[in-house]
Amino acid sequence: MIDLIPSIPFILKGILVTLQFVVASGIAGFIIGVLLAFAKIGKFPLLKRFADAYTAFFRGTPLILQLVYVYFVVPEVTGWEIPKLAAGIIAFSLNSGAYVSEIIRAGIQSVDKGQFEAAQALNVSYWKSMRKIILPQAIKHILPALMNEYIMLLKESAVISVIGAHDIMRRSQIVAADTFNYFGALTIALIIYFIMVRILETFGAKLEKRLRYSD
Amino acid sequence: MINVNNLTKQFGDNQVLTDITTEVKKGDVVAVIGPSGSGKSTFLRCINGLEEATKGEIIVDDITLTEKTLAQVREKTGMVFQHFHLFPHLKVIDNITFAPIETKGVKKADAEKHAKKLLETVGLSDKANTYPNQLSGGQKQRVAIARSLAMEPEIMLFDEPTSALDPEMVKEVLDVMKQLAQSGMTMVVVTHEMGFAREVADRILFLDEGAVVEETTPHAFFHHPETERAQSFLEKVL
């Protein structure tokens, strides 16, 4: 293990890369997911069809292939040499958006339809009902599933190593290849991912508890 | 106050209401009665546009109900549901003040003052700061009535307001409704409470298979029903 110590900072720097990537994809994916969710529950059939097809496509093909596709096909077609991190963020946020949209749609639809009707009968507008009546109730269903999605995103982010982005995964592989100490280098990566996920889980549990408190 | 002309409603191939024409005058209390599946609730829900009529027209206080006038019509009508539909994440008082504050721009203090007065009328002054899940069914329904009244409607629509209640709680809700009727409120009440219909209603609308079969006074309806269908219905429920 001693021989690995000089390489540890190199692997740790991957945390920043991974985080940068996960946060950007998470935020963009969330925005995409919200837009798609409202398209799905809205009254415009064309938007609904688009959102359904979008979800079917991104859930129906491998994430790693979507990533490689963006990284290699975009330059081929447009001539733009897409940076690794950007390719990763694009692929992951497009993919995550599909899952998030299902989480939000299901959460909203889990709220009793009568809530919406009561608001309508009281002459409350659609968006106001959504914001102040439906979403505050839906959030209790949405949040746990959303937390799950972000944990998945954090772990799956290791996939960007295949296009050569220097995340935790990639760095630990480089160190392993340099030192021939696969056990040590990969174990360090395992521990880092595990701790990051635990932190996210703890944070999610706290948030959930707080919401339940308001019942 | 309410004119319904040739109202027809279909869900897909299923014809729920057929050519209903009726009128409700200001101050009238109309009880809508009929076997389950006769279209009573759908009829009521058409009046405030929760269901869109397939054919025919609804006129509320000289305003013909369309997508454009929907808000105007809803401003004049309050609705009470079988399953209350109180907002579970809001305290009782906030349930009542929500719509006036959000849609009419009433000041919070004024809305709360009004809400407290309404809670007093429905006998729940002590429940202002509790959440709906701490109330009994009868209390929930009374809060729901107060919530509707907070919007100062001219017409109140009741969709089987006591059907989801335990028997011992029916009376407290009916009493509030009676009080409301006596105050001159125009009311359309879909109900299975024959006692209430007989005692409080000015008129009975008997629906069967989506059509008005009889429209008459409670006395005539309960003592000399004209049609066979009304007779056999009354035999079963009385």
From TrEMBL, chain B:
| Coiled-coil ranges per UniProt | none
Question: Is NAD given among the entry's keywords?
Answer: no
GO CC, sorted alphabetically, is: plasma membrane
Query: Per the UniProt entry, what species is this protein from, by scientific name?
Result: Pontibacillus yanchengensis Y32
Instruction: Give all residue intervals belonging to the ABC transporter domain.
Output: 2-234
Topological type in the membrane: Peripheral membrane protein
Q: Name one GO molecular function term.
A: ABC-type amino acid transporter activity
The family database entries (InterPro entries) matched by this protein are listed as: AAA+_ATPase, ABC_ATPase_HisP-typ, ABC_transporter-like_ATP-bd, ABC_transporter-like_CS, MetN_ABC_transporter-like, P-loop_NTPase
What is the official name of this protein in its record?
A: Peptide ABC transporter ATP-binding protein
Which compartment or compartments is the protein found in? Answer: Cell membrane
Any Pfam family from its record, for instance, is: ABC_tran
Q: Which family does it belong to?
A: Belongs to the ABC transporter superfamily.
Q: Lineage of this protein's species?
A: Bacteria, Bacillati, Bacillota, Bacilli, Bacillales
Q: Which UniProt keywords apply?
A: Amino-acid transport, ATP-binding, Cell membrane, Membrane, Nucleotide-binding, Transport
